[in-house]
Amino acid sequence: xxxxxxxxxxxxxxxxxxxxxxxxxxxxxxxxxxxxxxxxxxxxxxxxxxxxxxxxxxxxxxxxxxxxxxxxxxxxxxxxxxxxxxxxxxxxxxxxxxxxxxxxxxxxxxxxxxxxxxxxxxxxxxxxxxxxxxxxxxxxxxxxxxxxxxxxxxxxxxxxxxxxxxxxxxxxxxxxxxxxxxxxxxxxxxxxxxxxxxxxxxxxxxxxxxxxxxxxxxxxxxxxxxxxxxxxxxxxxxxxxxxxxxxxxxxxxxxxxxxxxxxxxxxxxxxxxxxxxxxxxxxxxxxxxxxxxxxxxxxxx
Length: 301
Description:
301 residues; 3 domains; two-stranded antiparallel ribbon; 2 strands; elongated; Retrotrans_gag_dom; Retrotransposon gag domain-containing protein
């Protein structure tokens, strides 16, 4: 063979070994050659050199001797296997036994990667978010032109917030979009935060088909029965030091709405009046108020 041809083949072979050396090192690290019975095809630098790489007849200019044994010693097969049998399947697929002096070319290496390693190295698919309602709703029901998404009051699901109150407030804040159930489905996630929002984004895709289903699922997850308030509880409410009178009366109103006992309005006003700070109580001695609004107005003067 002409010397130029020999040099070209040696250069091409060296390029292949250099570009794929990290693959060979990986094969050795995971023990793939031993598992497939191809120990003779690999060494610490990659594939075993061909005759051209070692020099004609093994007498080339390589500083190191050839990395294979020209007179291999016969090694009997492992117990339980006869000569020519396949090696045990170690989970990498059945592979034929190759002779110790077999050499892998680049195409064989690529095939090996595709068939044996790549399927095991693929990462699992990452989860993707999908809305709990059908995608066609976003396409078929666009928000009104010029509509600005409100800054909704948030429901976190971590306090004693009323789900009924939240749905009512959400519907009011939707404005003109609140008349369309499909638009409310699109906007509802904007009114959730923290635990409630986490619950929403984990609903199965297409599990919610109507606004009624969304509302029922929301109540089912977060509805809490507010404790009832007795007349004794109302009579024991007092204005806290530093609390504005408007804030105290608003707090009294919220508690009063949870009281199942029906009384005339002036009776509730007297209970609230008795809970005011001392100076205001003195100011209102002998005065009667028809409702809590009148009491709050007089106290704010």
